[in-house]
Amino acid sequence: MKKTYLLCFLLFICVSSTFAQSKNIADLYEDYTTIRMTPDEKPKAIAIGLSLLNRKSELKPKQIANVTYHMGRLLEESNMMSKAIPYYEESIKLTPGYYVPYLALGNEHFKTCKELVAKMNQAADANDTALHGKLSAEYKPLANKTVAYLEKSYACDPDDITKGMITYLYQTLKNTEAIKTFDTRIKQLEQGCITLLDDE
């Protein structure tokens, strides 16, 4: 049933995207801004977003950044996080100060980090040093990437949950120095924070 829904969802996007290619770019962008936040219009909004990005030479830089971020959000909200990740990563490149995609990526990678920690603990309990070493080698770069996303998000929009996730990652990395210098690093990351994504 889930596969059938996903197939229909993707087919709708494909058909809508093909139709949108022939539309005036200003009208297409206006359609996008009208429906991008409407919950029951997600497939149509994704289709229009794809069409806009296929014609990004006709858009302003801020419009490209706006569509790129919302494509990530719309895909995540449609339970397609693996497809959302590249858009969030590109959104960060286009608008480095906008904290929301950092939080989305941080939260997603944090789940994988916790799964790896659980596996490392199981390997340690089983005295499987080879597996533990392999998992640790996989964990370290992912945890460092995840904590970087979360720190930028926290610097722009601090909350206790995110701080707890950051602390957990540094503790599992056994990086006590990073915990000590947390406040200094956050102060630096506060520079250039954007809380509202403009498209004009």
In N-to-C order, the SSE pattern is HHHHHHHHHH
**Topology, number of strands:** 0
Ends apart, CA distance between termini:
41 Å
Mean pLDDT: 91
Estimated share of beta-strand residues:
under 5%
Cα gyration radius (Å): 20 Å
Task: State the assembly state of the protein chains.
Answer: single chain
Which outline best applies?
elongated
Structural class estimated from helices and strands: mainly alpha
| Number of contiguous helices | 10
**Helical percentage:** over 70%
Question: The biggest beta sheet, please?
Answer: none
Low-confidence blocks of residues: 5-9, 12-19
Model description:
This protein is mainly α. Helix content is 77%, strand content 0%. It is built from ten helices and no strands. It has helices at residues 2-20, 25-35, 42-54, 61-77, 81-94, 100-125, 129-156, 160-172, 176-180, 182-189. The radius of gyration is 20 Å and the shape is elongated.
List keywords for this structure.
single chain, 200 residues, 0% strand
Summarize the structure.
By secondary structure, this protein is an all-alpha fold. It has helices at 2-20, 25-35, 42-54, 61-77, 81-94, 100-125, 129-156, 160-172, 176-180, 182-189.
Topology:
Blueprint: H1 2-20, H2 25-35, H3 42-54, H4 61-77, H5 81-94, H6 100-125, H7 129-156, H8 160-172, H9 176-180, H10 182-189
